[in-house]
Amino acid sequence: MKKILALVIAIVTLCACHPTSYKIEGSIEGAQEGDTVILGYSTDGQEFKTTSKTTIKDGKFVFEGNIEGCKIYYIGFEDEAEPIYAMFFLEPGNINADITYSGSRITGTSTNDVNIKLEEDLEKYVESILQFQDTLYRDTTLTEERKTEIGNNCYAIQREAMTYIQDSIRENIDNMVGIFMLVQYSDLFDNNELSSLIASIPERLIDRDNNLLYDILLQIQEMRNSPGTIDEIINAIGEEESEDFAADEEYESDIEE
Q: pTM, whole model, 2 decimals?
């Protein structure tokens, strides 16, 4: 009986120690003292659901609360002239947010730190590719040999970036960063590996009430594995456009009469 009681106490203590609280502190470019900052998420990429609001005080904003697991959220400042929203991963811990129009930096917890590193690494690849392309288009003194060399270097960087993305997804498929990237870059994997990656997503990260990332991946998988699915979608769109066109012609004909 004593052993059972000790086990129960240990389990309760472990659960009680599991952190769920978060604190987000940061600044937003353009926000003034007393301006409202909102915290929320989108389930479909369009409709924004506000879960909390705060105001700028001494140049900073602070959000505090509790959350289970890790979810994709947004911090927003609805300036009438130019609204700004920054995506990040809301999870227990202390989160630091520096939100600007040119690019936000949100760090402090494990998932956000992984995300910002990947973003910065990919940005370096993009900068290199753009430099090569800019040289090709602007430098009129380049010989054909030099153009070929620069083009090959640009292609090599692109291939390196693609490999980096693939490896990053494989390494992070057990967290929200990897799942989020897989939705964006699913076309970099063949059908077998895509299915394998989806199957390896931990159950704790399958959250259909927030962001629908897992369901999106299942839809991509179904389209890949169902011959004719894409054609059916294209044909359906074509038929709808034809019906709209026919309706417009009929409407114009009625006007002419």
A: 0.76
